[in-house]
Amino acid sequence: MNFIPKVRPRPIKRAKAIRQAPAFRRWVKKLQCSIKGCQSADIDPAHVRYGLPPDALKGGGSLKPHDCWVIPLCRSHHEEQHHHGEQTFAAKHKFSPVALAHQLWNEWQRTTETGQKWRREHG
């Protein structure tokens, strides 16, 4: 008789909750596309995965990175980002998605009431 250990399901809901800041994603959707010259108003909050700092709460195991690593991209540029890969996309458009995400996260926490509340509650 073979012994099969019980497999505990991963706490996906808890892991997702730790990584989410819905108010920040809503704020990002109100911004312009990150690509210079793009005037599209249909904005997606696009998660950045490539080039994150070593201490960043990254994705993996079917999880997206923390919402603090989100940039505003119009639908067509978001699809391009996924189609060509983040590194190629950033090189083509000559910008740093990680630096932009970091800047936007800090700006949201500094200038909005919900961002300041989030910072107080989550450190």
Jot down its keywords.
single chain, two-stranded antiparallel ribbon, disordered N terminus, mainly alpha, 123 residues
What does this entry look like structurally?
The protein has helices at 12-18, 22-29, 75-84, 86-93, 97-111, 113-122, and strands at 43-47, 70-74. With 123 residues, it is mainly α. It has one domain (15-122). Helix 3 (75-84) packs across helix 4 and helix 5 packs across helix 6. The termini are far apart. 24% of the residues are buried.
- Please tally the helical runs, counting DSSP H or I stretches of 4 or more residues: 6
> Roughly how many Å is the radius of gyration?
17 Å
Distance between the termini: 51 Å
Strand content: 5-15%
Q: Summarize this, please?
A:
This protein is mainly alpha-helical and 123 residues long. It has helices at residues 12-18, 22-29, 75-84, 86-93, 97-111, 113-122, and strands at residues 43-47, 70-74. The protein has a two-stranded antiparallel sheet.
